[in-house]
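Following up on my earlier thread - several people asked me to post the actual chain instead of describing it. Fair enough. Here it is, all 246 residues.
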Amino acid sequence: MLKCLAIDDEPLALRQLKAYIAKIPYLELAALCNDALEAQEFLATHSVDLIFVDINMPDLNGVDFVRSLTQRPMVVFTTAYSEYAVEGFKLDAVDYLLKPFSFADFSRSVSKANQLYELRHNQRTAPEAEAEAAPKDKEYISVKADYKVSLVKISDIVYLESEGEYVRLHLADGSSITTLFRLKNMEAALPSEHFMRVHRSYIVNLKYTRAYVKGRVYLSDTEYVPTGENYKEAFQAYIDRTFRNL
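Reply from S.P.:
Thanks for posting it. Predicted structure:
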């Protein structure tokens, strides 16, 4: 059971979150807060597993609130302003929900949080997982997850996403594998001619690149990952070197 805290200065938004949380059997609502300051007071004496927090709030916005937490639970940001998404990624948020979001969108986010919670719980006493470095002539990489070793075809990895101490591998068939591993170590284990770090939290398989616009790398018509300031120049150089501009 995940204990949840919902924070939003809009009463309607709080009521919607309360209704959505009530529909998910593994979620338990610990409190509703009208602003970040009220949430800070609550967390001073209570612990939660998951926080839903609006970004654009008075006095203390959601991003600064999360940054202020010394013991940081999992976080799902909710906001009506898409330009705040990058800030959420920088804080290793579990997900980002753009208002107005449906129950289906909410369900996908909490499912992701629940998977991460279970993985952390199951591996709390387990040694850090290892990814076997893949020589150029190897087609697969071995990844330890859920107490078993999964053989993942390198060419099937669309992108990799950092989730704090974990890495989620997003695969071409739509599935994903989450492993206790650092993204920088995974980067070293993958062939550099095929994979590129485009953000502190993302590595992409270059063969799946479909478009590049406004700080986003599109891996399909609808799915994209952000590019970080420290990685934009290298990725742009790859685009210029590889593709002819028409």
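The CA atoms of residues 128 and 222 lie 34 Å apart. That should answer part of your original question.
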